[in-house]
Amino acid sequence: IAADAVVAAGDPLGPLHGVPMTIKEAYNIEGLPTTWGIPEFKDNIATEDSDTVLRMKQAGAHFFGKTNVPLSLADFQSFNEIYGTTNNPWDLGRTPGGSSGGSAAALAAGLTGLEAGSDIGGSIRNPAHFCGIYGHKPTWGIVSDVGHSLPGQLAPADIAVVGPMARSAQDLKISMDISAGAARNDTTGWQLNLPKASKKSLRDFRVAIWTNDEMAPVSQEISDRVQLIGDTLSKLGATVSDSARPGINLEDSHDTYNSLLWGVMSAGLTPEQRVENQAALAQLDPNDNSIAANLIRYSVQDHGTWALNNNKRFLIRQQWQSFFNDWDIVICPQTATTAFPQDEGEYLERKLMVDNVEQDYFQQIFWA
């Protein structure tokens, strides 16, 4: 009714005027629960809107619900004790991805006009891949994450971002234009002024194709699809390379990422869990670089270790920036397979079959 009144009055309309949408459960909407799938927070009712929700409302959007997530936003699937399991709308026996799996499923099923997710290890990207929709993981700090939080969480989480999900690339752009910008307490101090794209034709682009990697092998189907995109772009006039790579040590880079990732993900450990992990660390083989070992190792890392890896992070950023001085885009797999069957077992014990070869479930965070 309010939207119709604005139209009738001839007032200026926002770019999302009248658009019905949902949003990932992890975002606060005043009057609705925010639980992150954690049973202890099932009665946590938000008292104000998150920055993203507020900006979408100001642009004219109307929220009619929230979409499902995995426990603590920490899975490539989306199930929890509060809301149950979300399935992939294309095949109900398979996962829609996670942690923004409910967002991707709602978009793919046509239940919503727009969505927003969050991503630290592929949580926007793998649901988009599994459900055949569009997602954008922005640079850290470009979109405010205020209100994408549980009670008491005030500082922005390191390497975690929030960003748009949609049914088209055009809708992603509209959503980014609306949601990007300083957090509410920073708006008096800084502004965001992202440069517009300067390239007008595919012939202007230099594209690196990265079809596979021994650190996280992908299925032939996925590898072939990446190659097909490269071949198509080449035929359409882009400069395409199958060998261009940033000058980084991938093992060092991935270890740095693990340090930062598990450092963030373990922030909510209880004192008892930290004691248990310290004891487990003492029994670890120093050469064990499995997912389970790294989770233990970096969940209780000292600040000096984190600071050392934080410095490596900035070196890796410089190396990527040097690469992007010569190349515009890297096209690579998002994960090893298409959407896989639901598996609600203990996630450190899960395995993923890739062309009949067993892999650790979380090995694919390499691509993230």
For the residues shown, what is the average pLDDT?
96
Beta-strand percent range: 5-15%
Structural class: alpha/beta
The ordered H/E elements are HEHEEEHEHEEHEHEHHHHEEE
Tally of individual helices: 10
Structure description:
By secondary structure, the protein is α/β, with parallel strands linked by helices. Helix content is 32%, strand content 12%. The radius of gyration is 21 Å and the shape is globular. The mean pLDDT is 96. The strands form 5 sheets. The chain has a 3-stranded antiparallel sheet with strand order 5-7-6. Strands 9-8-10 form a 3-stranded parallel sheet, covered by helices on one side.
Please supply descriptive tags for the structure shown above.
368 residues; 3-stranded parallel beta sheet; 3-stranded antiparallel beta sheet; globular; 10 helices; 32% helix; alpha/beta
Short description:
The chain is α/β, with parallel strands linked by helices and 368 residues long. It contains ten helices and twelve strands.
